[in-house]
Protein 1
Amino acid sequence: MADMEIKSGNKRTRQTADAVAVMEIGSSALRMGIYQKTPNKISRFDLLEYPLRLGHEVFTEGRISAGSLRELSSAVKGYLQVMKEYGVTEYRAFATTALREASNRAYVVDQLHIRNGLVVEVLENGEESALIYSALLGTPLTADSALLSYIGTGSVGAAVCKNGTVIRDCHLELGFLKLGDMLGRLEDQTSRYDQVLEEYVDAYFQRIPLRPGEQKYHRLILTGRELSTIAELCGAKEKNGAYLLGRDRLSELYRQARLRRLTLPEETEGQLLPMLALYLKMMEFTEADEIIAPVLDILDIAASLMLAPEQKERFEAERAAGAMACARELAAVNRADASHAERVRTYAVQLFDRTKRLHGISGRRRLLLECAALLHELGNHVNARSAALATYDLIKQSSFYGLNEEEALLTAEIVYPGAATASLTAKQGLLTNKLSALLRLADALDESRRGKILELKLKLEEERLLITARGHEDLLLERWAVDECAPFVEEVYGVRPVFVEKSRLLKSEK
């Protein structure tokens, strides 16, 4: 530790009871916070930071060098010693864009485990911004419609929030550090570097489904790395935990940066134009005259989820609600039958809960079934001849707040089993087949798309799943549809679904 310049805000003189640690392997630094829960709040006792250039290596060379790995491992060793001094036994270590995009990430993660005993979680696209958004959802800032954005060193996240729930989510692999590294060499080759930068950012942002003209948002809530640097240069003051950055002041700062009229450290100067280009581009999606920029730290958020069970429970509930809201929004954009999808979701949930002793699938995975039900006819208006395949592709290519990349793939596979068999493990294939069988059965119960069933009862017997339904119309088509999917259900679960129509002349007993 003596040969490393680690910034620390506290002297480590004694152990701290029930302390936890959160470590982040970022694009430009290795950071760690030490936290403890007190009766009234979660306190951070120490914050350590060790500068690294992992992002620069990955964004220019595509991989992390052996020398950088040794340096990272040495810094991690020092951090683990700090954890020991604090008596930390529980920690969370995660990596963001640089390690995620490194071609040799598996080797780096493996070596950190072998050399240091450190278990590193590599956050997928969207998971970093999701942690940030979790600190904003449920607050007055997101009570109405707003555009949320996270500008990171290697990625940009954007999400539409309505009444405290994310309904659209997307992310770009284009943070300010990556952007500067990618185009930086052009700065010495042309006097029009700023124009090239703007053109590249504009072209890249055309890929996200939040284009101006589709919808304008009156509030932009933006967070990100080096936010305090921009705020200071704009002369903004922190108030109630947030900065207010006016559009005019940001534009003027960008103009001064283009004309090289600012006196800044070399590293900051190289990052400022890309940062401002991304900030101003994000503002184009809104009618807001200012950016609301809350002061947030991903370390603090991760620590709160570790130390406060109620916050973790709220986080998971928000993710589930967001995933289904994003599914509903995507289905609406593609003109899917919303009423039918909701009925199928309801039936699928009933079937999932009633057959739990047969499938043994956790409650979290039920969310995948619900999203699949909401999306199962997504591709009908895209390719009627191959609707299932079109649906599969649309789900796989979309972003859902609350679902990671693996979960989105599994959701697509539930709708169209067999499409990704080669890339699934045996365990994943079994999971998707189990849920797909329930989805097919739920879809059969509304085969007419007319919502005929008024009452549905399920009874699991030794050799059959008895489905008793009462409708306001004849249910012959639904019975036929259940019979058609019965062989697949029986193959997966070992019981055969049997459909019994309850006479419409008899009212259900209370």
Note: The chain has a mean pLDDT of 88.
Protein 2
Amino acid sequence: MQFEQGANPARVKAANQAAILKTIYHCGPIKRSEVAQRLGLTLPTITTNINSMMARGIVRETGSAPAGGRFVGRRAHPVDIVPESRHFIGVEIQGARRTVCLLDYRGRALYTREHAGEERDYRRNMELARDMIHRALSVCGMGLDQIAGIGVCLPGLVDTQRGILEIRPSYSWTHKDIRGDMSDLIGYSGPIHVENNACARTYGAQLFRREALGGAQTFAYLFLSQGIACPLVLNTAMDFGSVVGSGEVGHMVMIPDGEPCSCGNRGCLEAYSSDSAVLRLCTQALERGGAPVLRRLCGESPPTMEQVVAAQEEGDADVAAIVDRAVYVLGVAVANINNFTCPSLMLIEGKLFCRPSNWDRLLEVVRQNLCGVIRTGTQFIFVEPDPFSGAMGAAAMAICKDLETYIEL
């Protein structure tokens, strides 16, 4: 692909710069000649831009490449990103918990922190996130002027262009200006990117699980928490893929006129298979005097998903039935997703799948409900739940946007 042709020199120059930086980011250490070959640009164009990036401290030479042939001369020096040249903050706000991380340019975590506790007030959640960001900067000895971008993610329908949370039904949050409010609260004038928390995890997967993604042309990220989402990503080897929609599969109707859902509809997937649904049903079982193992584990406190899975493991029949029903309905939904989109790969993250037997049950149901005519052999990877995967994904999103919009001033 030829980048340097075109009628608008400024736009072409910016496109060249971003393409070169992304190539170094994803393929480094890499020789200048290899960058030129990959992008179809002339070597002088590559050299000029890389030298400028080196002068700004974003890129550096990493040693000498092996000399080949019988020619004598200066060996080609591969170049790579300077990890400590830029830093990014990621925040996830879930209501019941908030997490923050601070990453370098290569995605290495310099700081992570979690604040747990139910908090339904929007403003208070934002203030807690602000305090966590300032704490991260203080611990790392940095100022806001050293942060190249901030990513914020949260459940719900998000307008990524405007940085607005359109709606989060379970908390009755509507039309919240996340970007503007965060900027005002922390006093930051740099770029702030806002995304649905399942979509943010797809950015994290592309940055931190690139080897697992392999050459998958498309992948889906099924995320189970208080709700359920499954965004689809068009993946490319040389770039962060494009997220196709927020993947709010939690509100696909699985059982018409079924259980009420937080969205106001009935029979949604979220009403049967989300963490919220499982905990609600387990609580009802406890109130009826059932689920004896779970009662022993949680006492008089509300049960947690970790305790639910442990009770299932110990043979609590009431809990096992609830979990089996949740996994069954989810398996039908996953089969529908695969029948419709046929992704090469699906990553699945959820506390229900801390128990491998639930993997087997889910895949059994998926196989039973796949359309044999279009069966494509989607690969399933179960991701170990990580309390920081959302914040890390939000920071990865900020890194991605930085690479896409890099313009030398």
Note: Confidence is low (pLDDT under 50) at residues 69-73.
